Amino acid sequence: MSITESGDWWVKFVVRRVPVTAEKPHGLDYSLTLHGPGNARYVGYDNAHGITVGSGPGARKPVAQDHRHRMKSVKPYEYQDAATLLADFWQEVDAVLKEEGASP
Predict the structure, then answer these.
(1) HSE (CB half, 13 Å, CA atoms) of 56?
(2) Residue 97: pLDDT over 60
(3) In this predicted structure, which of 23-32, 39-48, 68-77 has the lowest mean pLDDT?
(4) What is the per-residue burial (b if ≥16 Cβ within 10 Å, else e) of 31-52?
(5) What digits encode the pLDDT tens for the residues 37-60?
(6) Chain centroid to CA 86: how far?
(7) So what's the pLDDT on residue 63?
(8) What end-to-end distance do the CA atoms of the chain give, in Å?
(9) How many structural domains does the chain have?
């Protein structure tokens, strides 16, 4: 686990190797999160659980569990590799910090 603090904002990374499965075809269990004032999660990229895509009777649950959170919104994430995951996460963090006025 790695936590970096900067005022009221901090990030947390939890990553571990797991056996390759249909749900985790890349062999990683990961959670990358940005937390803000009051420890609220503003951004999260993880594969801890599947998500429902769509709504109503046509909703479907994907086999892969990779997804991203932005406040209360959850959307599928197309995992490519660890380097791209980190780049996408930090890009989202930068955008949120700018929106929230927490970026220099």
Answers:
(1) 1
(2) yes
(3) 68-77
(4) ebbbbbeeeeebbbbbbeebbe
(5) 989 999 999 998 877 777 677 777
(6) 10
(7) 60
(8) 26
(9) 1
**Structural domain containing residue 69:** 2-98
- Tokens 């909703």, residue? 59
- Residue 37 neighbours by CB under 8 Å, 6+ apart: 8, 9
**Residue 56 covered by a domain:** yes
Q: Which two tokens stand for residue 16?
A: 């571990």
Residue 83 domain-assigned (yes or no): yes
Structural contact between residues 82 and 97, judged by C-beta atoms closer than 8 angstroms: no
Task: List Cβ neighbours of 72 (8 Å cut-off, separation of 6 or more).
Answer: none
Strands (E), 1-104: 2-6, 9-17, 28-35, 41-46, 67-70, 73-76
Reading the block at residue 87, the tokens are 């780049």
| pTM to 2 decimal places | 0.82
Please, which residues bridge with residue 30 across strands?
Answer: 15
Amino acid in position 102: A
